[in-house]
Specification:
- By secondary structure, the protein is an alpha/beta fold.
- It is 37% helix and 20% strand.
- Strands 1, 2, 3, 4, 5, 6, 7, 10 and 11 form a nine-stranded mixed sheet that branches.
- Helix 5 runs parallel beside helix 8 and helix 7 packs antiparallel against helix 8.
- The mean pLDDT is 92.
């Protein structure tokens, strides 16, 4: 079987139930799989080792910092970042292998679509349109941003190639799990916000929820996901509003963990 001259790196924290599937989707065709684990308390490390990955333990450095650390552990300059809740499809595998056929790749970085898979579903909804990220790149030219909250590859003025086949993203184990993750993420964004006055966010208290519901339900096509899609879009919109509400509260009252409205019963 062909192998790409690529190191795949994965950051993890308590992903024993999912990381094995992720590693199996890349292990046969990449040069190595490197897992950087931030002190998991479950069997993540043993599962990753059993699947043939090289595992390094590193205390959490923030989203960008952890991925930059992982980049440096790879033995190849071409690296491929996959999260522990993502699975590379066979079509994407073929596209990536083709990138390395016939000499050096045309671009220094490549982006690809990520399509959400709902809990208990086996594939994305029809016409899914969730995210597009740069995940395959030459670390000699581009790197992940050094950031506590953002994990995006900074490509500067380099042209980026586009791969058409998707990765599948199993981002939530359940809707309660989704709410927990969004709530934690919201507080992280609040803690890293530089907003100091209420004026800059006051208007968004009225626009954030409807605009984000439209974005998720219509633009990202969760309307194709039936009741599950409606539920997903509603929760996403609510927590986008809650982020603004909490930033507004922090800016106006300088308090921590102020009481917030209850989330909708979705």
């Amino acid at each position: 079987m062909r192998r790409a001259p690529v190191s795949c790196f994965i950051i993890s924290k308590n992903e024993a139930d999912r990381i094995g599937r992720t590693i199996r989707s890349v292990r046969p065709w990449v040069d190595e799989v490197v897992v950087v684990d931030s002190e998991s308390t479950d069997d993540t490390v043993s599962v990753a080792l059993a699947e043939g990955a090289r595992v390094i333990t590193q205390r959490w450095l923030g989203f960008g910092g952890q991925k930059r650390f992982a980049e440096e552990q790879c033995r190849n300059d071409w690296v491929f970042n996959v999260d522990a809740d993502e699975v590379v499809t066979p079509a994407l595998e073929r596209e990536i292998l083709d990138v390395f056929t016939g000499g050096d790749p045309k671009f220094v970085a490549y982006g690809m679509p990520l399509q959400m898979v709902y809990p208990s579903a086996s594939k994305p909804r029809l016409f899914a349109r969730d995210h597009w990220y740069v995940r395959l790149y030459d670390r000699r030219f581009v790197r992940f941003r050094q950031s506590n909250i953002h994990d995006a590859v900074v490509t500067d003025d380099y042209l980026v190639g586009q791969l058409r086949a998707p990765m599948h993203h199993y981002s939530m184990r359940s809707f309660p799990d989704m709410k927990r993750k969004l709530n934690d993420r919201t507080w992280l964004l609040v803690e890293n916000s530089d907003v100091t006055t209420t004026g800059s966010v006051s208007l968004r208290l009225f626009t954030e929820l409807p605009m984000n519901f439209f974005k998720y339900y219509i633009v990202r096509r969760h309307c194709m996901g039936g009741f599950t899609g409606l539920r997903y879009a509603s929760i996403q919109a609510w927590y986008r509003f809650l982020k603004i509400y909490r930033i507004w509260g922090e800016a106006g009252h300088k308090t921590r963990r102020m009481p917030a409205p209850e989330a909708p019963a979705a």
